[in-house]
Protein backbone atom coordinates (compact mmCIF):
# COMPACT_ATOMS: atom_id res chain seq x y z
CA UNK A 1 0.00 0.00 0.00
CA UNK A 2 1.31 3.41 -0.95
CA UNK A 3 2.09 5.75 1.93
CA UNK A 4 0.24 8.95 1.03
CA UNK A 5 -0.42 10.76 4.32
CA UNK A 6 2.49 12.88 5.59
CA UNK A 7 2.51 13.29 9.37
CA UNK A 8 4.85 15.04 11.76
CA UNK A 9 7.01 12.53 13.61
CA UNK A 10 5.40 13.47 16.95
CA UNK A 11 1.85 12.91 15.64
CA UNK A 12 2.86 9.63 13.96
CA UNK A 13 4.52 8.36 17.17
CA UNK A 14 1.61 9.51 19.35
CA UNK A 15 -0.90 7.61 17.22
CA UNK A 16 1.28 4.50 16.93
CA UNK A 17 1.59 4.44 20.74
CA UNK A 18 -2.17 4.97 21.12
CA UNK A 19 -2.86 2.08 18.73
CA UNK A 20 -0.50 -0.23 20.64
CA UNK A 21 -2.15 0.78 23.95
CA UNK A 22 -5.64 0.13 22.59
CA UNK A 23 -4.66 -3.23 21.09
CA UNK A 24 -3.15 -4.41 24.37
CA UNK A 25 -4.35 -2.64 27.50
CA UNK A 26 -7.62 -1.42 25.97
CA UNK A 27 -8.67 -4.85 24.75
CA UNK A 28 -7.70 -6.46 28.06
CA UNK A 29 -9.72 -3.93 30.05
CA UNK A 30 -12.80 -4.34 27.85
CA UNK A 31 -12.49 -8.12 27.93
CA UNK A 32 -12.33 -8.05 31.72
CA UNK A 33 -15.36 -5.74 31.86
CA UNK A 34 -17.34 -8.15 29.65
CA UNK A 35 -16.29 -11.12 31.78
CA UNK A 36 -17.30 -9.32 34.99
CA UNK A 37 -20.63 -8.24 33.49
CA UNK A 38 -21.44 -11.82 32.45
CA UNK A 39 -21.22 -12.82 36.10
CA UNK A 40 -24.26 -10.65 36.85
CA UNK A 41 -26.50 -13.21 35.16
CA UNK A 42 -29.16 -12.86 32.46
CA UNK A 43 -27.51 -11.04 29.54
CA UNK A 44 -30.82 -9.86 28.05
CA UNK A 45 -31.38 -7.49 30.97
CA UNK A 46 -27.78 -6.82 31.95
CA UNK A 47 -26.93 -3.12 31.56
CA UNK A 48 -23.30 -3.70 32.55
CA UNK A 49 -22.90 -6.31 29.81
CA UNK A 50 -24.52 -4.04 27.20
CA UNK A 51 -22.26 -1.15 28.23
CA UNK A 52 -19.16 -3.36 28.08
CA UNK A 53 -20.09 -4.69 24.61
CA UNK A 54 -20.70 -1.11 23.42
CA UNK A 55 -17.28 -0.11 24.78
CA UNK A 56 -15.76 -3.06 22.92
CA UNK A 57 -17.40 -1.94 19.68
CA UNK A 58 -16.12 1.64 20.08
CA UNK A 59 -12.65 0.32 20.90
CA UNK A 60 -12.52 -1.89 17.80
CA UNK A 61 -13.72 0.98 15.61
CA UNK A 62 -10.98 3.25 16.95
CA UNK A 63 -8.37 0.51 16.47
CA UNK A 64 -9.52 -0.01 12.87
CA UNK A 65 -9.45 3.73 12.13
CA UNK A 66 -5.97 4.21 13.61
CA UNK A 67 -4.65 1.11 11.83
CA UNK A 68 -6.03 2.32 8.51
CA UNK A 69 -4.62 5.83 8.94
CA UNK A 70 -1.18 4.62 10.05
CA UNK A 71 -1.02 2.09 7.21
CA UNK A 72 -1.25 5.01 4.76
CA UNK A 73 0.94 7.43 6.73
CA UNK A 74 4.62 8.23 6.79
CA UNK A 75 6.53 10.54 9.13
CA UNK A 76 7.93 13.68 7.52
CA UNK A 77 11.73 13.65 7.47
CA UNK A 78 12.60 17.16 8.62
CA UNK A 79 16.18 16.73 7.41
CA UNK A 80 14.82 16.54 3.85
CA UNK A 81 12.34 19.39 4.30
CA UNK A 82 13.40 22.61 2.65
CA UNK A 83 12.60 26.17 3.64
CA UNK A 84 12.63 27.87 0.22
CA UNK A 85 8.92 27.31 -0.38
CA UNK A 86 6.01 26.19 1.78
CA UNK A 87 5.45 22.43 2.00
CA UNK A 88 3.71 20.03 4.37
CA UNK A 89 5.67 20.02 7.62
CA UNK A 90 6.91 23.61 7.38
CA UNK A 91 6.18 26.28 9.95
CA UNK A 92 5.13 29.48 8.20
CA UNK A 93 5.12 32.91 9.82
CA UNK A 94 2.65 35.16 8.04
CA UNK A 95 1.43 38.72 8.28
CA UNK A 96 -2.33 39.20 7.99
CA UNK A 97 -2.63 42.49 6.09
CA UNK A 98 -6.27 43.08 7.10
CA UNK A 99 -5.83 42.57 10.85
CA UNK A 100 -2.25 43.87 11.03
CA UNK A 101 -0.99 40.83 12.93
CA UNK A 102 1.67 38.14 12.63
CA UNK A 103 0.94 34.48 13.30
CA UNK A 104 2.83 31.24 12.79
CA UNK A 105 1.16 28.10 11.46
CA UNK A 106 2.47 24.65 10.74
CA UNK A 107 1.27 23.11 7.50
CA UNK A 108 0.11 19.52 8.10
CA UNK A 109 -2.11 16.91 6.45
CA UNK A 110 -5.84 17.03 7.06
CA UNK A 111 -5.76 14.22 9.65
CA UNK A 112 -3.36 16.22 11.82
CA UNK A 113 -4.93 19.68 11.44
CA UNK A 114 -5.74 21.37 14.76
CA UNK A 115 -6.58 25.07 14.79
CA UNK A 116 -6.01 25.34 18.56
CA UNK A 117 -2.38 24.31 17.99
CA UNK A 118 -2.03 26.51 14.87
CA UNK A 119 -1.71 23.41 12.66
CA UNK A 120 -3.54 23.96 9.38
CA UNK A 121 -4.23 21.49 6.63
CA UNK A 122 -2.50 21.75 3.29
CA UNK A 123 -5.94 21.43 1.66
CA UNK A 124 -7.64 24.15 3.73
CA UNK A 125 -8.17 27.51 2.00
CA UNK A 126 -5.26 29.07 3.91
CA UNK A 127 -3.01 26.03 3.47
CA UNK A 128 -3.72 25.85 -0.27
CA UNK A 129 -2.91 29.54 -0.67
CA UNK A 130 0.45 29.16 1.10
CA UNK A 131 1.64 25.89 -0.48
CA UNK A 132 4.57 26.31 -2.86
CA UNK A 133 5.07 30.01 -2.16
CA UNK A 134 8.25 31.65 -0.84
CA UNK A 135 9.10 34.04 1.97
CA UNK A 136 8.44 37.63 0.91
CA UNK A 137 5.53 36.69 -1.36
CA UNK A 138 2.00 37.91 -0.77
CA UNK A 139 -0.81 35.41 -1.34
CA UNK A 140 -4.59 35.62 -1.30
CA UNK A 141 -6.54 32.90 0.51
CA UNK A 142 -10.11 32.42 -0.69
CA UNK A 143 -12.03 31.52 2.47
CA UNK A 144 -15.78 31.13 3.04
CA UNK A 145 -15.67 34.52 4.79
CA UNK A 146 -13.99 36.22 1.85
CA UNK A 147 -10.49 36.77 0.53
CA UNK A 148 -7.60 37.26 2.95
CA UNK A 149 -4.31 38.85 1.89
CA UNK A 150 -1.27 37.36 3.63
CA UNK A 151 2.44 38.04 3.38
CA UNK A 152 4.80 35.13 4.03
CA UNK A 153 7.45 36.40 6.44
CA UNK A 154 9.41 33.23 7.19
CA UNK A 155 9.46 29.51 6.43
CA UNK A 156 11.13 27.10 8.85
CA UNK A 157 11.26 23.42 9.76
Automatic annotation (TrEMBL):
Q: Name one GO molecular function term.
A: DNA binding
A Gene Ontology biological process in which this protein takes part is:
DNA-templated transcription elongation
Q: Which residues form the Transcription elongation factor GreA/GreB C-terminal domain?
A: 84-156
Mind listing the UniProt keywords for this protein, alphabetically? Coiled coil, DNA-binding, Elongation factor, Protein biosynthesis, Transcription, Transcription regulation
Identify the residues that the record assigns to the Transcription elongation factor GreA/GreB N-terminal domain, covering every copy: 5-73
Keyword Amino-acid biosynthesis among UniProt keywords: no
Does the record bear Cytoplasm in its keywords? no
Instruction: Extract the PANTHER family matched here.
Output: TRANSCRIPTION ELONGATION FACTOR GREA
NCBIfam families per the record?
Answer: greA (TIGR01462), PRK00226.1-4 (NF001263)
Role of this protein = Necessary for efficient RNA polymerase transcription elongation past template-encoded arresting sites. The arresting sites in DNA have the property of trapping a certain fraction of elongating RNA polymerases that pass through, resulting in locked ternary complexes. Cleavage of the nascent transcript by cleavage factors such as GreA or GreB allows the resumption of elongation from the new 3'terminus. GreA releases sequences of 2 to 3 nucleotides.
Q: Of which family is this protein a member? A: Belongs to the GreA/GreB family.
What is the protein name for this chain? Transcription elongation factor GreA
Source organism of this protein record: Candidatus Stercoripulliclostridium merdipullorum
Amino acid sequence: MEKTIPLTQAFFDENAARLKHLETTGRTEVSNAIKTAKEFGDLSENAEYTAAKNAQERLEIEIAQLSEMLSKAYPIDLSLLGTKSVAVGNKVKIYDCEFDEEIEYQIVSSVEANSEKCKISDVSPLGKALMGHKAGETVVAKTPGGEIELKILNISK
